[in-house]
Amino acid sequence: MNDVNNDAVHNNDVKRDDGMIIRHATMADLDALAGVEAECFPPAEAATREDLRDRLAVYPDHFWLLFDRNGTVDGNIGADSADGRLVSFVNGMTTDTPDLADGMYADASLHDDHGAWQMIFGVNTIPAYRRRGCASRVIRHAADEARAQGRRGMVLTCKTGKIAFYARLGFVDEGLSSSTHGGVPWHQMRLTF
Predict the structure, then answer these.
(1) What is the reported pTM?
(2) Residues paired with 176 in a beta bridge
(3) What structural domains does the chain harbor?
(4) What is the average per-residue pLDDT within 12-33?
């Protein structure tokens, strides 16, 4: 299931010969993260800059960022990173609560560093990099880390049209969740290790 090799370099970076690198986030990534989030989700569903800042302050090691070191930094997304262009990221908290609840999105204090479940709040890939394996790569990397940390698995919610995508990564559809986030129906999906 591992899509990236395990050649660790500084700061928990993982890279391949294709110029892509995965690393955890720092507060210096906030503007790029907020830009990608706004590009990937409608306003009612997107995390605000403040939400992302609060999450980064509490659990930066639960943000996985994929950069294209060969990507053109066009002055918009990822312009501030020495690692190249931010093209995809995944983030979420850990908790012993087995189901993803709407309150988790905005309350970073609910994070439990020893939690059994890695929640995934957002899977973001900028349009120019979609259908190139970026999201799968970051999710697999996050799953590998969660597994190595002894978590029971990962939980996310998605719209009906994304169920097959997550199923290919090993997630099981548990049906409609109780989430009303953004005013749309969500399916809860779980990857158990």
Answers:
(1) 0.87
(2) 187
(3) 8-151 (3.40.630.30)
(4) 83
